Amino acid sequence: MTIYSAPTQESWFVLRHVIGIDAHSRLPGYEQMDEGSVTAVLEGVGRMVADVLAPLNRAGDVQGCTRHPDGSVSTPDGFRDAWTQWVEAGWPTLEGDPAYGGMGLPKVIATAAAEYVLSANQSFETYTGLTAAAIAAIEASAPDDIKALYLPRMVEGIWSGTMNLTEPHCGTDLGLLRTRAEPIGDGRYAVTGTKIFITGGEQDLTENIVHLVLARLPDAPPGVRGISLFLVPKFLPDDAGEPGARNAVSCGSVEHKMGLRGSATCAMDYDGATGWLLGEPHKGLAAMFVMMNAARLAVGLQGVAQAEVAFQNARAYALERRQGRAGRGTPDPAAPADLLIAHPDVRRMLMEAKAYTEGLRALCLWCAHLVDVSHGDPDVDERAAAEGTLALLTPVIKAFASDKGFETTINCQQIWGGHGYISENGMDQFVRDARIAMIYEGANGVQAMDLVGRKLGAGQGRPFARYLEDISGLVEGCRDHPVLADIAMPLGASVERLADTATWLAQAGTDNPDDAGAGATAFLHLLGTVALGAIWLRMARAATRLTASDGYSQAWLDAKVETARFYAARMLPETLALAAKVRAGSASVMAIPANLI
Amino acid sequence: MTIYSAPTQESWFVLRHVIGIDAHSRLPGYEQMDEGSVTAVLEGVGRMVADVLAPLNRAGDVQGCTRHPDGSVSTPDGFRDAWTQWVEAGWPTLEGDPAYGGMGLPKVIATAAAEYVLSANQSFETYTGLTAAAIAAIEASAPDDIKALYLPRMVEGIWSGTMNLTEPHCGTDLGLLRTRAEPIGDGRYAVTGTKIFITGGEQDLTENIVHLVLARLPDAPPGVRGISLFLVPKFLPDDAGEPGARNAVSCGSVEHKMGLRGSATCAMDYDGATGWLLGEPHKGLAAMFVMMNAARLAVGLQGVAQAEVAFQNARAYALERRQGRAGRGTPDPAAPADLLIAHPDVRRMLMEAKAYTEGLRALCLWCAHLVDVSHGDPDVDERAAAEGTLALLTPVIKAFASDKGFETTINCQQIWGGHGYISENGMDQFVRDARIAMIYEGANGVQAMDLVGRKLGAGQGRPFARYLEDISGLVEGCRDHPVLADIAMPLGASVERLADTATWLAQAGTDNPDDAGAGATAFLHLLGTVALGAIWLRMARAATRLTASDGYSQAWLDAKVETARFYAARMLPETLALAAKVRAGSASVMAIPANLI
């Protein structure tokens, strides 16, 4: 039996004291973001996920989803009731546009809340998360009548959304996709093809399912420039907008997976299904990327969320289980053995978990705030700057947070020893569920290629240069601080190392693209390690500016500073190895003939 | 459907050209180790594991083991037939003492063969592997009549062995164990208590199961100095030595685990079961450690084996699946997309997998050779030197090979993209099966404590110093070599870094034991990274000394050198970060009060 309690105090600390949401009242929704309102939302979501969703997590893993002979799919027992409660509580509507019945809360608040849902039950969250992504794509590219018909129901949570990109022969390389769409008049299209790995492609939670499908028009040019986006509902809405005739789309099978088993991963057959074009012909990939970018940030958040729940359970175990005597004297001489947490190597693992979890949460929330700025800041330059930083960091968040989140679940499972390998104890599910985040929404290697191939040089490299300047400025401001200096100094060295490595990479990658490819993953981790160092320095600085009178105990504030110090001393040195790996180039990577590797 | 083919050429290259088994004919069993004999064994085992065991691997994972109401346990369908074939082929007897019906082959050959069994079906191997470990403990500590009764049947494989250490409240800390043994006359004891995580505690493969059980005698002092080792058979042998009356030991439950599901992990209840003391009273832990050390090397080998089979499947997929265009030009312009293996980031993952798998195999085989030397060298100094190196490297092999083996399975699963997360494709089982090796036989953190707390300083630090000298000598010998220089140079820098870090650790750990504990895992990885670098330099040197006339193609030999170069350029830089982590000390690890972590 695992435990979970939503870390609302941690979220609030980041929102208020690191991001400073109170200083952004110019942004839509931020004006109402006082402590009382935010806390009410966070604690409300936190309570429901702990009470309703967390208890279904392991049972859902054991039972999984079932496809019946008629093609219908059952989610695990309890999911349907939980969905009803979730919708009745209004939580799906958090970030929805008020024009369609949403609460209109900022992305940054919705993101803080989404983390809790993911920690409590990642499988359950996939249904809501992909609906939110589909809403974003429809908002961005659908004509008004489709918005008016679909969005209110999707925002409310009685209809859901899916993303249909992958086909059996193509995942990363969407240029190869074969699903076709033929005009049948009346602005409608007949969509035919097979899609795989469709999360929530079929389920028993919602009255209708709105599939967003990439397909080719008859006159489409080959490759990615010939892909269009279509909306294909499971049930065609009738004149009243209610689910009417069944569309020619069905679930052919449900996958058996390593984890995320409460989430129905479906193979979907489109057999001349009726669809509507979203956006312009052949521009479907751009329209889908609205969805993809939001989804990539959400996937990074999955890493944070699984790390958090694994960390909570590892910490609890280390505070309860006694084994052996710790290194320095005997903390607990009257007991037969010391607590695990007294052992330095166990503490090391816990501190790594804490440093990654809290740091990555702050980074994800900060990026969610950048989404709010990029959409809603009245100043066009601010919007553009936020968009540039966000584009740069999106692959980093997706890949680095999912890699480190997974690594953290492994460390936390390790603290449980043999008991961590026993399924009943739940640690193994955190590992298995966390694993998918490194793969879907663009495998992490693809994120790394996106970073070095497109994002680093975007805008003549200005967003990247500006990001480095921001961190250097932060370092300068803390370099002489009595408490923060020994956090700032190694960060300063690391950001210089990052800058030098980027310069090397830009030159080398121009001479030989293989150098960029061979160093891409190491470079992404280098940037991620520095980004996390920077956010930790921000958190430590915020903690030094607060006192017990601000609602935090002094010991809690000191712990923030100490964790930043741990990160600087223990994690920033990884930049040494990562920089060296990038600079090793591609020669030894590409040397061996393919058939002899 | 996964593939597996035993890498006999790789094994033979290491045995003959890196270890040089032909130069050790003074060792028992080595005199018959010509190419024909060794190849016959390796290929024979390789064929049977590929034909019989590999096809059962996934089915065993899906079905798992079942405990029936009468306490009996079924292994997965097919395991029993496979066991019969295995015994009939004589493979269990490979390294057995000829006095008890064994073939008497060297440990190094048995280890090469065990890797194949583990790759094909790790669950199946646990039954044979623990039997081998139990045989070693009985040989080392049992009186002659017990040896004569039990060993022939265990060597043949018709009886199996188990290790019973863990209890619900104690795993790492065996000083806490409560199982008791009371003398009942006639040299017999009544053993009472509960043991958990007993691999093969009950199964349907063998006629009898020989449990080796740690328990306390009535007059036992508390802690680890009061533990004795008992032999407790499932069936008490009758006068003819056949399984007779059922003993009072039974299986209370079989665990549901993350992986290794074909291996029955049992909770065992001893209810006054009849047992015999092995070795001296209160010296059971020393007797069990004979078993533990062999088992730790075997667990390291599990990391190699899962890495190898995952690597084979990732490579095959990368040579078949086409996605996107690779960085440098278009390797395959006529095809709709390039093979995955053309992409530098995919190649990077494959090269890491290759470097770790082949390097760790060589390290494991070299340590197995040291076992042979330490047992059988006529020169007492050679025996002692081998024993010292072996003691030093045992925790490194166990922890580093299992950590890197697991990491490799993850990388290989990643190459499969979303298809790697689908259970039917088998990549996920490699990950889940590999995970346990980091936990059992002493969690990897415990190995790290063993290394820095005991092994580094053992023998006044001479084994460690001698090991470093060996590597430095190797580096010196290759420093001016036209091909090997750029492999030797970074290794030279890394071994100096290791030596400096060890000096720092010895001093700091004396002043504050927490520094040793906080740096233990990073130090173990530092030593492991250098050890692998050294074995890669040895492999590269061996490859430069061979030509196509020795039975290897020049391209194959060149690939060995290139992989060594890849390791030196890409993996040795990790020593920079690891050394810095050790030197960061324990201050930031221990700073935060336990309740605020």
Your description of this structure?
Two copies of one chain form a homodimer. By secondary structure, chain A is an alpha+beta fold. The first copy, chain A, is 55% helix and 12% strand. Chain A has 17 helices and eleven strands. The first copy, chain A, has helices at 8-19, 35-63, 79-88, 107-120, 122-141, 144-156, 284-318, 344-376, 380-415, 427-435, 444-455, 462-478, 485-511, 513-544, 554-571, 574-583, 587-590; strands at residues 66-67, 73-74, 159-164, 180-185, 188-199, 208-215, 228-233, 235-237, 243-246, 249-254, 265-278. In chain A, the strands form three sheets. In chain A, strands 3, 4, 5, 6, 7, 10 and 11 form a seven-stranded mixed beta sheet that branches. Chain A has a two-stranded antiparallel ribbon with strand order 1-2. In chain A, α5 (122-141) packs antiparallel against α6 and α9 packs across α12. Chain A is globular and about 80 Å long. At the A-B interface, α8, α9, α10, α11 and α14 of A face α8, α9, α10, α11 and α14 of B.
